[in-house]
Each structure stands twice: as C-alpha cells, then as structure tokens.
Specification:
heterodimer; A: 175 residues; alpha+beta; five-stranded antiparallel beta sheet; 4 helices; 11 strands; 21% helix; B: 986 residues; seven-stranded mixed beta sheet; six-stranded mixed beta sheet; 24 helices; 50 strands
Chain lengths: 175, 986
C-alpha cells in the first residue's frame, strides 16, 4: 500500500477474526479444548499477544479473539464452537466485519503517536484495544517493528484518510 | 524612538549571512534569519505598529515574547490570514506579509481614533451604562467593528497541521537556566526527559548547554509552547514548524512536570505609558543581546526595583546609551552605571510624542520642579511577576510575597514542581541549586527571593502629577484592553472589588495576553483602593491556553473527510455508481435518494416511494444494528429486555419489540428473530446496536447475573439488502432464490437461513442478460460467481408497508448481491431507493421512527404500543415505571396522524401545536412530515397532548411565526388494513 525506508504498510486482505465466547460462570474449558484440538496457543491473559499468526487476544473475561491472516485452523475452532454445539460457549465469525493493516519498520511509533495517545500504543508482545482518532482499534504487536491494526470495516475509509494524513506528517518531521 | 541594528557580537539569535525581506502594511522590511517580525520592525525604526482596542491610540512593540499586549498584527492573505497575532512571537521569513488589523483607512490616519475625543463616554463597563437609548443594538454593530483587533481569514485554512502524542517520565517546560539545570539533573539520574522551550531558539544560557543536554539524552524542542496543563499529568503544547506542517500539536503525558517558565516583567504606571517606544526593560535588553537591535538611541529606564539598574548596565554594555534612571523608590540597593543620572523618589509625569516617544517629564513624588529628558525609548522595569499560569491551571494556589511584590506558588502539587523565576527564585545560584534538586526528584523548599525590595505600587503619585500643572495623560494598566488606572478606581467605587468582578467589569486581563503584563498592577491598585493587600485581593484563576493557539492546530487535521468518523456501507461502490445524494444518518453515510438529472431531493424521494408501492425497490439496510444472542437463558433474557414476549417465538419466528430504560422510556426498537432454541438474532435501529448491546451487557452484569447469555454485536460483519414492493418476490425468484421464500410459503415476520447460489438457473425471464445455461462460474459475471453457496438470513419484515425481504449476508458479499439483484431487477423495473423514500413510506404507514417520533420522555403507551403489557406475565426493564401516575396520565402526549386542512401545505417538523400564537402553552409538536406521493397530499405524525382522544379535531400549529391548520387523524394513512405487506397479489 505504501512504503518509506522506515515504514511499510500492507493491507491484510484475507484477515480472519473469530470471537470465542464462553459463559462467565461456565469457565473457559470449551474454548481451551477447541483451541487445543486445533493446535492453537493457550488463551492469553489481558494485554498479552499469544501465538504467531494465528494470534490470540484477550478481549473480556468471557471472550478472546482469534486473529489470522488466513483461514487455516479457523474452521476447526468455528465448527467446534458453532452455536448449539456447546451450551457454555460459542464462536462468532467477525471476519467480514473487520479491516486489517500490517505496519512494519522502525517508524511505527512515529506514525501511531500521530493517530492515538502514546500511552495507548501497543508495546511489543502485547495486544490492546485503543482509541485511534475517535474510533476503536485493536492493535496486535508481535515485534517492535511489526504491528497489526484492526478496525471496523465500515471505518476503512476514515482510517485510510487519517493514515495518509499522519504519514505525510512524519515525512520530514524530526519527532 | 529610532531603532537600529547593533554590530556583532550582539544578536545571538540572528544569522547575518541570511538576509530576508517581508512586508508590513505594504512597506518593505529587511531582517535576518532568526529575527522575529517585531525585532526586524524595531531594527528598521518602525515603532508605531497598531492601534489600541477601544480608543484606537497609537501602539508599538512592548515586549519580546508571548506576553505582548499591543504589537498585534494580521499575518498572511486571504484564506491563510491569521489575525491578531503577536509580532514578538512570529519568526520573520522571506515574503511574509503582515498588516495592522484594526486601523482604517491607514495606521497613521485611523478614523476610529476619533473615539479618543469621546473617551469620557467610554469608561469601564460603558456598554452597561451608555448607548442604552433608544436601544443598545443600534450602536452595537459600529462599536464591535471599531473594537476588533484583526480581520479573520476569508475561507478554509489551506495550511497543514500535525499532531503528536508523547509519554515521558519528566517534562521540563522552559529552557532557561533553571529549566536546563533541572532537565540535566533529571536525565543524569536516569529519567527520560523532554524539554520544551517556547522561544524559537531558546535562551542564551540554554543554547550553550545544548550539547550537554543532548549528551545526557534530553530531547529538546524549541518553538514549542506548553499552553495547558490538565489532570493526570497531561500537558498540551503547540510548536511552530518549518516543514510541511505549519504547527504541531503536542499532547504529553508525564510522570513528573517541572515548570521553568520564568517571569514576566511588570510595567511602570505613569501617564501615557502606552506610547510607542515605551517598552519593558527586559525586552529592550533582549532585543539588543539576542537580536542585535537597539530599540532607541537614548533610553530612559523607569524602575521600581533593582533589576532596572542591572538592565541599564547591560544595555550600556551592549552599546546603547542610557539617559537616566527614574527610580520610584527613594532607596535602592542597585548601583547605576557610571555616568548615568538617577532620579530617586521620582516618577515620569508626562511622555512627549504621540506616535513615538520623544521625551519625558519627571517629577519627585512630593512635586516640585519638572525635569525634561530627551529620549526615544522608555525601558519600564516595575518588578517581576513569576509566570505561574501553568501552575495555577493545574490547581495550584498562590501566595503574595510582599517585599518582592509578587505572587509565587504556595506549595508543590503532586507531580508538578516549579523552579527558577516562576517559583519566585531570582538569585541565580540558588535557582541552579534548587533546580538541580528538583530535577533529581528531591523535594526542597523554593528559596523565594533575590529581587531586592520592589515597590508594589509603582503608579505615579498624584502629588507628582500636580507638578505638571496640566491634565495628565491616561495611565494604562492593561494596554491590550485600554484599561486605565481610573477604570480600576471606577470599579472599586462601584463595588466591583472581587478580582473576578474587576476582570469582567473592566475587561482587565482578558484577550490574547490574558493580563500577563497587567494583572499584578491591577490587583495592587485595587488593593490600595480597598485597603487590602494584593494577597487578599487574590488573582483570577488562570486557564488554558497560556498563549493563543490557532484553531487549526487544535483541530490538527480534523477537517473535511477527517472531521468525524462516518461509516461506509459495504455496498458503497454500488450506490456511488447510481449517483446518490449522500447524507449522514446515525453515523453512516447513506444515500438519501438517487436524483435524476434536474430532480430535487424531495422529488426523487417521492418518485422512489411511489415506485416501491407499485413496482419494486432495492435498499441497502446494512447499518441496521445486528446482535447475536446465544445461551441457555437467551429467551428468558430477551423477555426481560424487550416489551414483547420473545420466549414464545418458535424457531424461525420474528417479532417486533420496544426496548425501554429503567424509566420506561423507549430507547430503541427492533425485531428479534429466533434462529435456534438458544440462538437469537436481534435487529436494532441503524446506529442503535452499540447502545442496545451495552444495555444488554449492563443488565447481564449488574442485574440478571445468573442468566447464561452471550451478547455479540455483529453489525459490520453482516450486510443487508432489502427488496421491497409488490414485485419483490418476482425479483427474488428471477434472481434465483428458493421457492421457500415465496409469500405463500414464508409468512410475514418469519426468518429462514438459506444457502444461495446465484449461478444456478432459476426463474429468470428469458430476455434477461443474466439468463444462461452454463453452470460453470467461469461463465458467470463476477457478482454471480461471488454468490455461490452463500449463507443468507432472510427475514420477511417490512418498514415500507409493502411485501419486503430483508436479506442479511456477509458484508463482504453485499456489493455482489446488490449487483446481482440490480442486473436481474433493472429490466423488471426495479429502482434503488434511499432513506428519504423509506421515511415517506413508513410515515404513510404510521410506523414509529425511534429518535424521530420519540424523545427522552416517550413511553410505549404514548406511541400506542402498550397493548399486551398488562397481560405479559414476566417482568421487563422499565415495567414498574409504566405504572407511575405520570405514565398513565391521559393528558400525556400521544402519537397521532395530522393532515393539513388545505391538503397542500406540508407541516414542518418541529411545528408547535398551540391554540394561539406562541408564547402560549404548547400542546404538541410535529415529529415526522412528508408529502405522500401515494395519497397526493402531505401527511405528518405528531406528539399531541391527549392525542388519541382528539381524532377529528382541527388544531392550530405554529412555525417561525406562521400559523397552520391541521386535522388530527388516525394512522396508518395508507393501507389501514395492512394487507399489502403480505404480497398476496404476487
């Protein structure tokens, strides 16, 4: 999509996202079992990014999100937790409703600090939800120089506008 | 005053190898890189730069920084014009154009200066007393025109603005000696330090320390002024940049903030102390040392403190000539420079010259003979006022130090410390030691002092003025707002003694300088007049911004398409291809209608609405809120949340329901469909999904904690295409949809999940281009190929009153389905229809539009939806509130239909129902109104007191002063039996 020596941007065209829900009282055993069967990582605690594409992200005490750049491994989990398969848990496919971008390079923080509060930018190894120019985004940061940004697909145009604007802001800027 | 350029080494900020030129009021001005507009003007001997706010007196450059009260200019042209900005704070640059903003026809001959002749009519608060007869509004426009200080830009700002957020351990505000020392100490103790300096190049001391700062890891930014401190260590700053962006907005979160903002010099109060050429002494010195500019050929220093003597010495060292020192005090510790006469216990009683200082008359406080001194620059040194603005913004209290005549921070705030002059520390060595401790994080009391004795009241005494034997000139306390010492006295006489009242009554301390050079003098005067010490008078609360900030910097790019988030529907491209008129509805960008050439929005909406009643229309309803509810207790939970009973729904059934808050007020509505025993699909209003999902979660987490239900909003994951009209099924059948969807097979308010394959041959008309026999997707159009084996949720529900299918599918396939249905439907006469047509159709049917027909008081009974509530056996949110007397009052407003009596005049939404022209008791108001293309006359919905009891009554409505008449009727207006939505004719 765009690139400078410090920063490259790629659209995650086939981004997949599954909401893994379980009843608070019922425990996460059904979700853990489904993940285990699909050889996916253990659900992480809040703020921590687990896995390496597919990723697992804590979302609430009763929800994790399974995120990947392609569908591999997803169907097994989705089938195991499809509504009706387990009374205490379910999976809801949100893939069609999200838009994903991958940033790589050393300029990630310079760009993100123009789009959101510096304290909200995900640290390496972390996954957080943050407020990015008046919208909610999910950030997955597997490494200091790699960041996934996931936003409601209805806001793709808005996000694109702002990234372009902020990108121009860092070109030639000294901060 | 005839300024000139001093020879090197004076002028540390300027680069004499880089000359530049700019224009001031059309006149060419020469300067060097590093000059401010003010320094370049002064170097060229230009002293008269503006006119005052109220009296239009000639004004010049007064200071050397953000505190500038009078040197205010407009910069730029047209769209890029920035009005009313400080010449002392703008870097001179090649080609810049600066103007005086409030003089006409010219700066030299300003017509509004006639106001000086009527100054007696314009005392403080004159607009409360004079110009009242016959009416203030007659005079207000002219007075406002005269009072303006600049001309606003005439179009959208073409400049670009940047913003950046930063998180640091220590933020040091100010790059003077104390700030630099604090930053170095903090960095050397291992802290991540950010130092921001407002001046473009920093102080000379800090310039020398730059290498050390960088070596210690301190991040330094100049031209960056912190203008606000907020809760939780948040600071905001604006930086002038030289790159692609004009300004950069910084938001900084710091664990610790060290304020090193210095101090402002207090002016002396003497008659005509506003003449161009009267300047702050520190500014005169700074122009000499930093910019290499002599502000005059012969300077008189008027002082009430020892620093006046130091300034006089430094000026002479820099090459300026000092004619005399006029000391308000009788005793001084300071030593004058050799050969400079000192007039102690004396004051200036008159200034010669109107547009430039030519001389002064001095008298002793006790009166006696006048001394006349030739001078072209008066350096005013009345003491120091620590820049406590940011400290006060953060909630800090101030205390008055009498011997130094200044307010200083009373105590350290959590996470915020003051060092150097802004802490009241004027002894250089003590300031360094204190700043060093604070930088390391060691809390030590501030050693306030170092100024020597400063006379709090430095106003020329009346006895000295008597020596003039003539009426003295005005003594200005606030130069920016033309507030004089007599205005302060007037406020005291009229009992505006509170500092807050003083400010509002006189306007002292308002506008761009926020009283940086006037506040303390005004408080001292008020104290003298009311027998209080300045500490008892107190200060007003300092508020952000510390200096004026452009709106562009605050907006930081939030303009045009970046103004606010607007969601796009998945079929956006399809709509764009059909030429819609886009509008925002509930945070979504949606087609209001698809006007044809020359067609208005209203005409297009009526055409589309008529077409849907007679043929078929396509509508994208993707913004409909969609929530998946799953769990063993989902049915019971929905009974608790929705007015209707949902637990009795069979799988495949759907039911309309209202959602109420605890007060029984409708906050959303929608359709609940049952997909499985434990699985429900909830449609909410467009834009209502978030609030409904939050309400569900809140009730689950706070009240119904034992209910086993999972709530997952999925609005954006699912698109929705609605096919509506008598030919809706014919279109779907032709498009390859399963016969199970036929109206005879699928009842209204049912839902089914089907697999759809658009490549399958179905009942397409033979002439249709999509009709072909090959099954291979390679031979199908792309949109059909994209619709193979697709899972759809099809609901028979209608907001138009016609046969309608709401088809939900993955958002990623919505565009393809629209294209497919259009390819099939266009030859059959299908049209796309927008939100305006939908609103017309639903109004014809009298269907409720939550948020349009309801407000924060509407109960189910008000809109006729309380049937069945009494019979419902289980409780639900808001039920108890519906039993309150106010909820059952028959005089409550109720939703009714209105038809204009003349069957022609559309009733405006918002028109009030009242028996007589308002102001009068209001009986109701119009909530929805459209011209019905199907009925041929306008129809409206309205909330009307006791409305359902008033059917057939003729009522009066009022809108913008005009009266209208309408008849109260029952709804629906169209198809009252509701037969059409069953599609029995198809």
């Amino acid at each position: 999509m765009a690139a400078t020596p410090e920063l490259r941007l790629r659209r995650l065209d086939a981004l997949q996202m599954l909401a893994l829900r379980h009843l608070p009282a019922g425990g996460a055993a059904p979700v853990r079992a489904a993940l285990q069967r699909a050889r996916l990582p253990e659900p992480p605690p809040p703020g921590i990014l687990a896995g390496s594409d597919p990723f697992l992200v804590w979302c609430s005490p009763s929800e994790w999100r399974l995120v990947a750049s392609e569908r591999t491994g997803f169907d097994a989990v989705a089938d195991a937790l499809k509504p009706g398969a387990d009374a205490a848990a379910c999976a809801v496919d949100l893939s069609a409703g999200v838009h994903g971008l991958e940033f790589t390079g050393s300029g990630i923080d310079a760009l993100m600090s123009r789009l959101m509060d510096a304290g909200s930018i995900a640290a390496p190894g972390c996954a957080t939800r943050g407020r990015l120019v008046d919208t909610t985004v999910l950030q997955l940061r597997p490494a200091p120089d790699r960041l996934w940004l996931i936003v409601d697909c209805a806001l793709e145009g808005w996000l694109t506008q702002w990234i372009e604007y902020a990108w121009q802001g860092i070109e030639g800027a000294q901060v | 005053m005839s300024g000139y350029r001093l020879a090197a080494p004076q002028g540390a900020w300027i680069d004499r190898t880089k000359p530049l030129r700019f224009q001031f009021n059309g006149r060419e001005v020469h300067g060097f890189a590093g000059d401010t507009v003010a320094s370049a003007l002064l170097a060229q001997g230009i002293v008269h730069v503006g006119r005052s706010f109220k009296l239009h007196r000639p004004r010049g450059i007064f200071s050397c920084g953000v505190e500038e009260p009078t040197g205010l200019l407009d910069v730029g042209l047209g769209h890029a014009r920035t009005p009313n900005t400080r010449a002392t704070d703008i870097a001179a640059r090649e080609g810049l154009k600066a103007f005086t903003g409030n003089a006409w026809p010219s700066l030299e001959w300003d017509l509004a200066a006639l106001a000086q002749r009527f100054a007696a009519l314009l005392p403080a608060g004159f607009y409360y007393k004079t110009f009242m007869w016959p009416h203030w509004h007659l005079f207000e426009p002219a007075i406002r025109r005269m009072a303006g200080l600049g001309v606003a830009a005439d179009g959208p700002d073409p400049e670009r603005y940047d913003q950046v957020s930063r998180q640091v351990q220590v933020l040091v505000v100010g790059g003077g000696a104390a700030g630099v020392q604090a930053a170095l100490s903090a960095a050397q103790s291992g802290q991540h330090v950010l130092l921001l300096e407002g001046a473009a190049q920093g102080d000379l001391a800090s310039l020398a320390h730059l290498p050390a700062l960088r070596q210690a890891g301190v991040e330094v930014h100049t031209g960056c002024t912190v203008f606000g401190l907020y809760d939780h260590g948040l600071a905001a700053a604006t930086q002038t940049t030289a790159g692609a962006a004009r300004e950069r907005l910084w938001t900084i979160r710091a664990d610790r903030i060290v304020l090193a903002t210095g101090a402002f010099e207090r002016p002396m109060l003497f008659p005509d102390n506003d003449r161009p050429g009267v300047m702050l002494a520190g500014a005169v010195l700074r122009y000499a040392t930093h910019c290499g500019v002599a502000c005059g050929r012969c300077v008189v220093v008027a002082t009430a403190c020892d620093s006046g003597y130091e300034t006089a010495k430094a000026l002479m060292t820099a090459g300026l000539s000092v004619a005399a020192i006029v000391d308000h005090r009788s005793v001084a510790a300071g030593e004058p420079p050799a050969g400079v006469p000192v007039l102690r216990g004396s004051a200036i009683v008159a200034v010669k010259g109107r547009r430039a200082v030519q001389g002064v008359s001095v008298a002793a406080h006790g009166g006696g003979a006048l001394q006349h001194i030739e001078t072209d620059c008066i350096a005013s040194a009345g003491g120091w006022a620590p820049a406590v603005n940011l400290y006060s913004m953060a909630g800090g209290k101030l205390r008055w130090v009498d011997h130094a005549a200044m307010f200083v921070p009373d105590r350290t705030l959590a996470g915020i410390e003051s060092v150097g002059a802004c802490a009241g520390i004027f002894d250089a060595e003590q300031a360094q030691a204190h700043a060093s401790s604070v930088g390391r994080g060691v809390a030590v009391p501030a050693p306030v002092g170092g100024t020597g004795h400063v006379s709090a009241n430095n106003r020329t005494a009346d006895s000295a003025l008597a020596a003039l034997e003539a009426a003295p000139g005005k003594i200005f306390v606030d130069l920016q707002n033309d507030v004089t010492a007599s205005d302060i006295a007037l406020a005291a006489r009229e009992n505006y003694r509170s500092v807050e009242h003083l400010k509002r009554y006189t306007t002292m301390g308002m506008a761009t300088d926020q009283g940086k050079t006037s506040n303390v003098n005004a408080l001292v005067l008020m104290g003298e007049l009311t027998q209080r010490c300045p500490g008892e008078v107190g200060t007003t609360k300092f508020r952000p911004p510390f200096k004026p900030v452009t709106l562009g910097a605050l907006a930081a790019g939030r303009t045009g398409e970046r103004h606010k988030p607007l969601k796009r529907m998945p079929g956006h491209a399809w709509h764009t291809a059909h030429g819609p008129l886009w509008e925002e509805f509930g945070g979504w960008q949606r087609p209001a209608a698809y006007p044809r050439a020359g067609e208005s929005l209203a005409a297009a909406a009526e055409r589309e609405a008529l077409h849907v009643r007679t043929q078929v229309g396509l509508f994208e309803a993707s913004p409909l809120g969609k929530i998946e509810l799953y769990g063993p207790d989902a049915a019971d939970f929905l009974d608790l949340m929705v007015v209707g009973t949902m637990s009795t729904l069979p799988v495949g059934g759907a039911r309309y329901g209202l959602l109420l808050n605890e007060n029984g007020v409708i906050f959303d509505d929608g359709i609940v469909a049952r997909l499985g025993e434990q699985h429900f699909w909830v449609h909410t209003t467009s834009g209502g999904a978030e609030r409904v999902a939050l309400a569900f979660e809140e009730w689950l987490q706070c009240e119904y904690v034992h209910h086993r239900v999972l709530v997952t909003p999925v609005t954006s994951a699912w698109g929705n295409v609605t096919v509506s009209g008598p030919k809706a099924w014919a279109l779907l059948r032709a498009a390859g949809f399963d016969a199970r969807l036929a109206p005879a097979a699928m009842r209204h308010m049912t839902v089914c999940e089907i697999a759809f394959d658009a490549t399958r041959p179905a009942h397409r008309p033979a002439h249709h281009p999509a009709h072909h026999s090959a099954h291979d997707s390679a031979h199908h159009p792309a949109h059909q190929a994209a619709l193979q084996g697709l899972s759809l949720r099809v609901m028979r529900a209608s907001f138009t009153g016609e046969l309608a299918y709401e088809i939900s599918l993955l958002a990623t396939h919505t565009q393809a389905l629209l294209e497919h249905l259009w390819a099939v439907g266009e030859p059959m006469g299908a049209v796309p229809f927008g939100v305006e047509a939908l609103m017309t159709l639903r109004t014809e049917k009298g269907y409720l539009h939550v948020g349009g027909d309801t407000d924060g008081t509407t109960l189910p009974g008000d809109v006729g939806m309380d049937r069945g509530i009494a019979k419902k056996t289980v409780n639900f949110a808001g039920r108890r509130s519906l039993l309150r007397p106010a909820a059952t009052d028959p005089r409550r407003m109720q939703l009714v239909g209105l038809v204009p009596s003349d069957r022609r005049t559309r009733l405006p939404v918002g028109a009030h129902v009242a028996a007589t022209k308002p102001p009068a008791p209001i009986e109701g108001f119009v909530t929805s109104s459209h011209h019905s293309p199907n009925l041929g006359y306008p129809v409206a919905l309205a909330m009307l007191a006791g409305g359902r009891q008033r059917l057939g009554e003729r009522i009066r409505l009022w809108h913008m002063g005009a009266g209208l008449e309408a008849e109260v009727v029952a709804t629906p207006f169209f198809d009252p039996a509701g037969e059409r939505l069953h599609g029995r004719d198809t």
